[in-house]
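dumping this here so i dont lose it
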C-alpha cells in the first residue's frame, strides 16, 4: 500500500512473536505479584473463593494501570 511491500505471512508471524515476547516481559512481574498475593492470602487461611476474587480484582486493576487506563 502506498509503495510499501506487503509483509509476508512469515514476516507478520515474526513481528507478532516479538511483540508477544515484549508484552510477556512487561506483564510477568504483575502476574507473579498476583500469584504471590494469592499464596499469601491462602497461607493466612482465607478461602480459595475469596482469594480468587481478591487476586482477580487486584490483577484487573494492575493490568488496567499498566496499559495506561
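and the seq i came up w/
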Amino acid at each position: 500500500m502506498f509503495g510499501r511491500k506487503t509483509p509476508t505471512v512469515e514476516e507478520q508471524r515474526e513481528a507478532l512473536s516479538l511483540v508477544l515476547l515484549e508484552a510477556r516481559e512487561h506483564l510477568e512481574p504483575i502476574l507473579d505479584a498476583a500469584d504471590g498475593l494469592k499464596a499469601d492470602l491462602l497461607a493466612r487461611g482465607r478461602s480459595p473463593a475469596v482469594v480468587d476474587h481478591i487476586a482477580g480484582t487486584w490483577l484487573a486493576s494492575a493490568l488496567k494501570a499498566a496499559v495506561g487506563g
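The two ends are 32 Å apart (CA to CA).
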